Amino acid sequence: MSQEEGAVIGINLGNTYGSIACINQHGRADVIANENGERQIATRIAFNGDQVYTGNEATPQLVRNAPNVIDGFVNLVGRKYSELGEDDLKRKSSTVLDINDTPSFKVEIDGKETTLSAHDVLVRFIGVLYDAAKDFMSGVPIVGAVLSVPIWFNDAQIKALETAAADAGLKVLQVIPAAAAALVAYGLTSPSDAGDLPAHPDGEQGEPYAPEKTLDRNVVVVDFGGSSLDVTVVAARAGLYSVLAYEHDKSLGGRALDDLLVQYFAKEFTKKTKITIGEQDARAWAKLRNEAEVSKRSLSASNSAQCSVESLAEGVDFSGSVNRMRFNMLAGDIYQRAQSIVTKALDAAKLDASQVDEVVLAGGAARLTGLAEQLSLLFAEDSATHITQSIDSDQVIARGNAIYAQAIVHVPKDAEERKFVESLANTRLENTDALSAPATTRPIGVVLDAPTGADAERVEKHIVDNQLFVTVIPASTPVPARRAFRFPVAAGATSSLVRIAQGTPSVRVDTIQPEPLDEEDEEDEPLEPEEVKSAYVKPDAQRIVELVVPHANSAKTVTVELIVLSGGQVTVEAKVDDAADVAASAKISA
């Protein structure tokens, strides 16, 4: 899109922090900074006299002016006060009030008591982000934005978000799930040419997936944000995403980690000064919390962090430090709970950890190393599962939104696809039948005799009854679906047999006994046997089709195309040496 036509942006509107991304001159998504150089902007507004503070500038107001500070309002929009829970109402800032069943706040603006609904506050905040984007664009008009929301947002919340954006003067191209935005940022399921999207798995400098993994993968998106943990299990199939399971925990997030650091530093202060911070000393706790959050962020980039607070309590200053190892010990329970939520989501998706190809980390709290270290315990050391976090986790969703927005506006304006995509912003979920599609319930693939020689060791854990099942169309693939594969012809052969079958995903568990202790180590505790899991597919005894492909004895390769239609019909076509004519075919009704 040219400068004359305008630019698009992506906005990650979190309940704790927001961020904005655009497409730079190199075609890459970048998170932009506001006038204060901040890329992560606190979802917070404060009023002090005739002054209005937004974003990170509003945070210091929590110390002396907390009743006039409004935060945590994004998740309130589109909901009735009577629908809110205790977690929604608990806060250190302005109290959430019930004004005609609408979540609202009362603050003093320029000496006058003013009532603002959650919608009013959100309009102001989106306006701030929009202004920051316009300043960064230096006169290039912004023609639209893609916003992301948690998957648990309902229709009313999404509509309220779109309305607030419109009231702030921003055109919404589409609202997408935050997990989808994270996947788009890495280009995980895009079959586009290299360079169209950041290379996977590690941005511009990353290596691509192995060829057999480029189209179809099982991905877990772990969004560890400021106020909650969202885990989404996604079947990524050739550019289409299907949510297999989802888990949400409001008790886990960056604030829970802040609480740990606040208590740790409070004890350190008491140990050094013999002064105990009183429970009612809101100012002291606010000071300590603000600095503890800064320390937490520092630990994502360095092995230690300082925490300094002037006149913390009774006029006494505090200066302390914490290293990453100590912090990870403090946060161990939270990380273990996060791992259990991931396991719960996998159980709901009926997947074992060994069947996961990718774990994508998103959210500011995911930048801390402890989460990735804990999640890695779910997977064997030699597992093919990749934990992806090369893009800063607090930027990945905004960048994905920007890439998605760019994809929308690249579709020609007069194309039916463009009209359809733009109509989605005004389409409620109950009216989106066209977006749903039937999917395969079991994997479909080719059955081979067990290989011998060097190849045997590589696939030995996948062999069942002396047969190897190679998945061509995985389970949870939306249909109609088309896949193709090519195999070499045995020297001198005049025909090849192609056996297509469905299979049952299974997990093999091997127990590895520890090495015996040396005499010098007899006093050590004996090591426990280790269980190693590996995923494989057991082919059905009954084949979908066994296709004999005739060819000359000089043939080199056979290419097989497999098509599955929504009614269960399966078509198999085989061609020899890239010939235009089909050498053999079969159609079967499943």
From TrEMBL:
- InterPro entries under this entry? ATPase_NBD, Heat_shock_70_CS, Hsp_70_fam
Please list the GO terms describing molecular function: ATP binding; ATP-dependent protein folding chaperone
A UniProt-annotated Pfam family? HSP70
Keywords, comma-separated and alphabetical: ATP-binding, Nucleotide-binding
Q: Where is the composition biased (Acidic residues)?
A: 516-529
- The answer, when asked if ATP-binding is one of the entry's keywords, is yes
List the residue ranges of the region (Disordered).
508-530
Which GO cellular component terms, listed alphabetically, does the Swiss-Prot or TrEMBL entry include?
cytosol; nucleus
At the top level of its lineage, which domain of life is listed?
A: Eukaryota
Q: Which SUPFAM superfamilies match?
A: Actin-like ATPase domain
The molecule here is called Hsp70 protein that interacts with Zuo1p
Q: What's the source species for this entry?
A: Malassezia japonica
As recorded in Swiss-Prot or TrEMBL, the protein's gene is named SSZ1
